[in-house]
């Protein structure tokens, strides 16, 4: 929902020659204020409802936003991460993350993470098709969203996210060619990108739990045999029966990875009830909804 | 040798008449002379006799040969083709000789690439541009011994008309392009005979400069090739290169025409050096002098001011630069673009890069045969690119270079080694051989470049690179006469010399930008070749004016 300007900056412009304000204009302004107030109340109510859906066991807490409005300035993750510490000193030029992906296997996890990154930073997103591929379907060309109006000035952005559709056997990420080796595999790239949003939990047991869910997602849900997939779904079911999200009260990389892999494997309809409820919670978060459109 | 051995004897022989009595000297001399003469005569007679014998033998052979030559109407050297008759005969192309034509009797015209006799057979390789096929003349009911001998003696590069039966072969003929068939020759006529001694051998000219089994075998150096260009251009590699070049030109025209561009022709004889600087050729022009155009820059811009909106031109460019490098020519073909835009010069960059991408795609999809042919002699990595084209800013390029250890100032121009290094770094990160570097520092660009609106150190100018080498330098042009005058003064250019240029912008000029590429350099870099002379048919450089 767009944010409407508060304040009466308009009224001063409508002053008549003798300094008085036309009563008709005053009436209009009063109506405008009334409508704005009603809109605000509606917005608060909807946001409150959204909270109950996403965090069923928590209070109506506004610190964790639902990002129903994709232009919301409050991001899902509000941890403290420092781009300079993670990516190296800013040498006065755009820090561009390059991801080479095969159009036959679109990396849904990375696209969800991209949305989350855009909420947190000023990200310049570009999609290219490499000459090793003759063509890609149009939804893969627009998968990073509409072009930013400032995209002609690369240096105005904090981070670059360059997605190249290429004939590669395995997804690969390149960042600083001198200081970093390439990162292979969707799971590993997802871990790297997630750490730009929020640090892993400091508790080693919890951190390992997140990692093991990420592995389960890619190795069992996405690439595993039908038995492995069924087993993973059962594990998901029991874990989600105990808590709203996979690694505790908050959304983590585990949820992002598992959601995307469940979706890609097509097992959503046959999943246990707790999993289906959790899928709905995910989809209520704006950053996940886009991933679904790419599967069509 | 004979003289040396017998010189003592001969001298004594000569002296002897002097030693003996005077009155018999003349007599004895005569005797000696007649002895010499006799010997000489004897020798000559022997020689003549031998010759006569030989001639008689040959004549006898010839006669018997002629008598036995049942095939004498099926081969020979044809009379000079002066259009004596209009034969309605279809000549099949070598590239069409496939198993589908098996057991058909066909005519074709090709060059004799090689001919080799082996007993009662003669193997020929007949060549037509990029394609060649094996042909066989064998003694049998169609060909005689004499015909086989004739075929074996046809000089290389001669043009022949051949009537032959197309036959499928059991084993693929690896050395020819047509591997599944061979020709069994029934008639062979020489249409144009080549001289026996060729200045260069075509097999040597296509041999890769290599290691391993090729090491030590002859190749032909560049100067020899260029001196005998007519023969060098016949090689399969040259044929492929220039066919691809023709494709580049055609794709350039077609893509721009589809985008609504108009092709223009600009004058090459001009009154003043457009870019300023000493690199122009002077020509005498009646009572005065004129120059050969360094680029169509001025005229492209005038066309935009004349409301043609989007123009391109293909024509020669003359640069009197005394550079003897692998990538400079004094005359080359320029493909230039100029375009009016609405609000931002990136509209023009997108148009230019899209044109380049369409050219690359067209070559990738339609000229694979030519690319593979060139790679046989000059192996290289296939050309890679991204769509849309990658655009990096100058500051990013500098940051990447600094990360790799290069020390340079923010406003320094890129040296050629730095350009190459940056090309490699970009290739490593993005896996593309083609990219744009945007927002160059203002200080290193020509006076007519539009400065950046927010940062006076930079400009709205860009370079494009293929395989790390610059192929295009372009910019948004200053379209305001006042600003243009200021910029020219800043660069200490004589305003009188560019008066007509500045005048073009005084009567309403749209914002515009453009750039130009060199056809030869683009082909060289696309194919991964290393010298621009390989992609120029008759190259011109400071040391070469012929052929």
Automatic annotation (TrEMBL), chain A:
<protein>
    <submittedName>
        <fullName>Aminoacyl tRNA synthetase complex interacting multifunctional protein 2</fullName>
    </submittedName>
</protein>
<dbReference type="GO" id="GO:0005634">
    <property type="term" value="C:nucleus"/>
</dbReference>
<dbReference type="InterPro" id="IPR036282">
    <property type="entry name" value="Glutathione-S-Trfase_C_sf"/>
</dbReference>
<feature type="domain" description="AIMP2 thioredoxin-like">
    <location>
        <begin position="93"/>
        <end position="183"/>
    </location>
</feature>
<dbReference type="InterPro" id="IPR041503">
    <property type="entry name" value="AIMP2_thioredoxin"/>
</dbReference>
<keyword id="KW-0648">Protein biosynthesis</keyword>
<dbReference type="GO" id="GO:0017101">
    <property type="term" value="C:aminoacyl-tRNA synthetase multienzyme complex"/>
</dbReference>
<keyword id="KW-0539">Nucleus</keyword>
<dbReference type="Pfam" id="PF18569">
    <property type="entry name" value="Thioredoxin_16"/>
</dbReference>
<dbReference type="InterPro" id="IPR042360">
    <property type="entry name" value="AIMP2"/>
</dbReference>
<keyword id="KW-0963">Cytoplasm</keyword>
<dbReference type="GO" id="GO:0006412">
    <property type="term" value="P:translation"/>
</dbReference>
<dbReference type="GO" id="GO:0005829">
    <property type="term" value="C:cytosol"/>
</dbReference>
From TrEMBL, chain B:
<dbReference type="GO" id="GO:0003723">
    <property type="term" value="F:RNA binding"/>
</dbReference>
<keyword id="KW-0067">ATP-binding</keyword>
<dbReference type="InterPro" id="IPR045864">
    <property type="entry name" value="aa-tRNA-synth_II/BPL/LPL"/>
</dbReference>
<feature type="region of interest" description="Disordered">
    <location>
        <begin position="33"/>
        <end position="65"/>
    </location>
</feature>
<dbReference type="GO" id="GO:0004815">
    <property type="term" value="F:aspartate-tRNA ligase activity"/>
</dbReference>
<dbReference type="InterPro" id="IPR006195">
    <property type="entry name" value="aa-tRNA-synth_II"/>
</dbReference>
<dbReference type="GO" id="GO:0006422">
    <property type="term" value="P:aspartyl-tRNA aminoacylation"/>
</dbReference>
<dbReference type="Pfam" id="PF00152">
    <property type="entry name" value="tRNA-synt_2"/>
</dbReference>
<feature type="signal peptide">
    <location>
        <begin position="1"/>
        <end position="26"/>
    </location>
</feature>
<keyword id="KW-0007">Acetylation</keyword>
<comment type="function">
    <text>Catalyzes the specific attachment of an amino acid to its cognate tRNA in a 2 step reaction: the amino acid (AA) is first activated by ATP to form AA-AMP and then transferred to the acceptor end of the tRNA.</text>
</comment>
<protein>
    <recommendedName>
        <fullName>Aspartate--tRNA ligase, cytoplasmic</fullName>
        <ecNumber>6.1.1.12</ecNumber>
    </recommendedName>
</protein>
<dbReference type="GO" id="GO:0005829">
    <property type="term" value="C:cytosol"/>
</dbReference>
<dbReference type="InterPro" id="IPR004523">
    <property type="entry name" value="Asp-tRNA_synthase_2"/>
</dbReference>
<comment type="subunit">
    <text>Homodimer. Part of a multisubunit complex that groups tRNA ligases for Arg (RARS1), Asp (DARS1), Gln (QARS1), Ile (IARS1), Leu (LARS1), Lys (KARS1), Met (MARS1) the bifunctional ligase for Glu and Pro (EPRS1) and the auxiliary subunits AIMP1/p43, AIMP2/p38 and EEF1E1/p18.</text>
</comment>
<dbReference type="InterPro" id="IPR002312">
    <property type="entry name" value="Asp/Asn-tRNA-synth_IIb"/>
</dbReference>
<keyword id="KW-0963">Cytoplasm</keyword>
<keyword id="KW-0648">Protein biosynthesis</keyword>
<feature type="compositionally biased region" description="Basic and acidic residues">
    <location>
        <begin position="41"/>
        <end position="56"/>
    </location>
</feature>
<keyword id="KW-0597">Phosphoprotein</keyword>
<dbReference type="GO" id="GO:0017101">
    <property type="term" value="C:aminoacyl-tRNA synthetase multienzyme complex"/>
</dbReference>
<dbReference type="InterPro" id="IPR012340">
    <property type="entry name" value="NA-bd_OB-fold"/>
</dbReference>
């Amino acid at each position: 929902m767009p944010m409407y300007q508060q304040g009466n900056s308009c009224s001063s412009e409508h002053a008549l020659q003798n300094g008085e304000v036309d009563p008709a204009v005053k009436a209009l302004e009063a109506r405008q204020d009334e409508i704005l107030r009603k809109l605000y109340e509606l917005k608060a109510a909807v946001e409150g409802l959204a909270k109950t859906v996403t965090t069923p066991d928590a209070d109506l807490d506004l610190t964790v936003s639902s990002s129903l409005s994709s232009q919301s300035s409050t991001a899902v993750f509000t941890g403290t991460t420092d781009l300079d510490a993670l990516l190296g000193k800013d040498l006065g030029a755009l820090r561009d993350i390059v991801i080479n992906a095969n159009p036959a296997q679109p990396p849904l996890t990375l696209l969800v993470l991209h949305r989350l990154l855009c909420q947190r930073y000023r990200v310049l997103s570009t999609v290219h098709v490499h000459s090793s591929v003759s063509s890609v379907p149009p939804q893969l060309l627009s998968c990073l969203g509409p072009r930013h109006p400032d995209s002609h000035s690369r240096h105005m952005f904090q981070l670059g996210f360059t997605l190249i559709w290429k004939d590669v056997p395995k997804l690969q990420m390149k960042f600083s060619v001198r200081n970093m080796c390439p990162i292979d595999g969707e799971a590993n790239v997802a871990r790297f990108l997630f750490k730009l949003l929020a640090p892993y939990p400091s508790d080693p047991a919890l951190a390992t739990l997140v990692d093991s869910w990420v592995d389960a997602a890619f190795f069992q849900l996405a690439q595993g045999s039908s038995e492995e997939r069924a087993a993973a779904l059962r594990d998901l079911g029991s874990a989600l029966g105990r808590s709203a999200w996979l690694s505790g009260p908050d959304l983590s990389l585990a949820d992002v990875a598992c959601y995307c892999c469940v979706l890609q494997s097509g097992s959503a309809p046959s999943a246990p009830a707790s999993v289906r409820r959790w899928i709905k919670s995910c989809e209520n978060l704006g950053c996940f909804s886009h991933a679904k459109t790419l599967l069509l | 040798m004979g003289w040396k051995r017998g010189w003592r004897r001969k001298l004594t022989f000569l002296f002897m008449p002097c030693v003996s009595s005077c009155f018999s000297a003349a007599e004895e001399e005569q005797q000696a002379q007649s002895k010499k003469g006799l010997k000489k005569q004897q020798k000559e007679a022997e020689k003549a006799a031998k010759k006569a014998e030989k001639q008689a033998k040959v004549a006898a052979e010839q006669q018997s040969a002629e008598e036995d030559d049942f095939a004498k109407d099926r081969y020979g050297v044809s009379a000079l083709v002066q259009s004596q008759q209009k034969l309605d005969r279809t000549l099949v192309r070598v590239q069409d000789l496939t198993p589908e034509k098996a057991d058909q009797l066909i005519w074709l015209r090709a060059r004799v690439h090689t001919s080799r006799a082996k007993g009662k057979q003669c193997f020929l390789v007949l060549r037509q541009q990029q394609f060649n096929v094996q042909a066989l003349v064998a003694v049998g009911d169609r060909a005689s011994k004499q015909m086989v001998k004739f075929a074996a003696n046809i000089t290389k590069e001669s043009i022949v008309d051949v009537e032959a039966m197309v036959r499928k072969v059991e084993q693929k003929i690896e050395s020819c392009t047509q591997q599944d068939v061979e020709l069994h020759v029934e008639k062979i006529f020489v249409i144009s005979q080549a001289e026996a001694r060729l200045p260069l051998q075509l097999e040597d000219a296509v041999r890769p400069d290599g290691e391993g089994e090729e090491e030590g075998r002859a190749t032909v150096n560049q100067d020899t090739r260029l001196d005998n260009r007519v023969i060098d251009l016949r090689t399969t590699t040259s044929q492929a290169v220039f066919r691809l070049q023709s494709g580049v030109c055609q794709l350039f025209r077609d893509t721009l025409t589809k985008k609504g561009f108009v092709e223009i022709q600009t004058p090459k004889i001009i009154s003043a050096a457009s870019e300023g600087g000493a690199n122009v050729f002077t020509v005498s022009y009646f009572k005065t002098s004129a120059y050969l155009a360094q680029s169509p820059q001025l005229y492209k811009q005038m066309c935009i001011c004349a409301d043609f909106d989007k123009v391109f031109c293909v024509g020669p460019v003359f640069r009197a630069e005394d550079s003897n490098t692998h990538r400079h020519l004094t005359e080359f073909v320029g493909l230039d673009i100029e375009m009016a835009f609405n609000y931002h010069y990136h509209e023009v960059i997108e148009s230019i890069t899209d044109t380049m991408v369409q050219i690359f795609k067209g070559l990738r999809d339609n000229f694979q045969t030519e690319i593979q042919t060139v790679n046989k002699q000059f192996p290289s990595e296939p050309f890679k690119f991204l769509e849309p084209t990658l655009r990096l800013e100058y500051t990013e390029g500098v940051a990447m270079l600094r990360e790799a250890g290069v020390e340079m100032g923010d406003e320094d121009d890129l040296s050629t080694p730095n350009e190459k290094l940056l090309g490699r770094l970009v290739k490593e990160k993005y896996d593309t051989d083609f990219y744009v570097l945007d927002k160059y520092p203002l200080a290193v660009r020509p006076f007519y470049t539009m400065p950046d609106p927010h940062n006076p150190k930079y400009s709205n100018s860009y370079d494009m690179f293929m395989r790390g080498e610059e192929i295009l330098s372009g910019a948004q042009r200053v379209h305001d006469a006042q600003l243009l005058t200021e910029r020219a003064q800043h660069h200490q250019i004589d305003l009188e010399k560019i008066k007509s240029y500045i005048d073009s912008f005084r009567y309403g000029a749209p914002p515009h930008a453009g750039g130009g590429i060199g056809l030869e350099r683009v082909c060289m870099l696309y194919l991964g070749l290393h010298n621009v002379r390989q992609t120029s048919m008759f190259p011109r450089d400071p040391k070469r004016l012929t052929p």
